[in-house]
Prior knowledge:
This protein is of the alpha/beta class. It is 53% helix and 9% strand. The chain has one domain (38-257): SGNH hydrolase (Rossmann fold, 3-Layer(aba) Sandwich). It contains 14 helices and five strands. Strands 2-1-3-4-5 form a five-stranded parallel sheet, sandwiched between helices. It is globular and about 50 Å long. The termini are far apart. The model is unreliable at 9-24 (pLDDT under 50).
Amino acid sequence: MHHRLIRHGVLLIALISVSASAFAQQPAPAIPSTGHPGLDQYRASRIAVFTDDYGQLMRYRGLNGSLRAMPLPPGRVVFFGDSITDMWKLEKYFDDKPYLNRGISGQTTPQMLVRFRQDVIDLHPRVVVILAGTNDIAGNTGPMLSEDIEANLASMAELAHVHGIRVVFASILPVNNYAPGSLEEFVTRPRERILELNTWLKDYCAKNGLVYLDYFSAMVDDKGMLKRDLSDDGLHPNAAGYKIMAPLAEAAIAMAMK
């Protein structure tokens, strides 16, 4: 009996080894194509992020730790969002204001929700300005239903409320296909979905006593697209675009602080 068990054990180990070897040789599953080459390439380049640090918590972790060791300035505001926030040089548009930029290029609302505690709540701002959703519509982290985007945004607002942080929700910006190479960004962000989400944001703010920051109306042209002179790539504001956004944001922040 003892020798029979040994033989069975050796056979089992051999089978496990063969199976493990065969599994290791299998190629990694390909990310399903979206039908948009640029988006496919972007998603493939983000595999390490999606698997190792989905919310990209490491981006601001060290800087946040340094800030928490310093006295909290009155009137701190966190600008929280994706590349449109990430690229905004706040110090050039808001002189001597204790405003922090916590944007990360390419992020969607589920990724932002993962880091909301670290990059907003733990910094104890008076106000958070949230600009998010355009990358969800595009499908940066996969297809997203509108109700799921809305749920993530509502969760951020509810978390902020529990911690006494006042919320400003910014509208999603229009996009255009005027710039060379901007067609895919335009096609993956249908105007109807942008308008739908902006309508939801405005209604949610009205129902919950939050401030709605309407960038869209100030930046859209007569064709329903982002004004040509406000963006160099059809998606991200240039200096002229941010110059329009800054006073609108300042007015919304003032309203939220009242």
